[in-house]
Specification:
mainly alpha, two-stranded antiparallel sheet
């Protein structure tokens, strides 16, 4: 199965939306949080901060039927060295800058 231009565009748009969310607000120990720090679902309208996996859910990158999106997920996993994104994101020493740097590398990988 070949990857189409529309799949690449959708994956790139998803990565950029994911980065935008994480730049707006990054959190740990929850997929997403609202303005007062309460845990919410990543796509909930009150979400203002996300962890790396919550940002991917909110950006619709977790579609297992889309070959390109699965490559993006694999690339991010390779960049962080694990498929366990929450554990990586929630490491006490992890910083927002590190999370954004991973997204920048993933965007550079997919963007020509």
């Amino acid at each position: 199965m070949s990857t189409t231009t529309s799949q690449i565009d959708a994956a790139l748009a998803g990565l950029m939306a994911m980065r935008q969310r994480l730049n707006q607000g990054w959190c740990q120990n929850a997929e997403a949080r609202d303005a007062i720090g309460m845990e919410v679902r990543p796509r909930h309208p009150s979400a203002v901060a996300w962890d790396i996996s919550g940002a991917a859910v909110a950006a619709d990158l977790m579609d297992k039927r889309d070959n390109m999106k699965q490559h993006v997920i694999g690339t991010i996993s390779d960049l962080i060295g694990t498929w366990n994104w929450p554990r990586w994101n929630d490491a006490p020493e992890r910083t927002k800058a590190e999370v954004l740097a991973v997204l920048d590398k993933a965007i550079a990988w997919i963007a020509p």
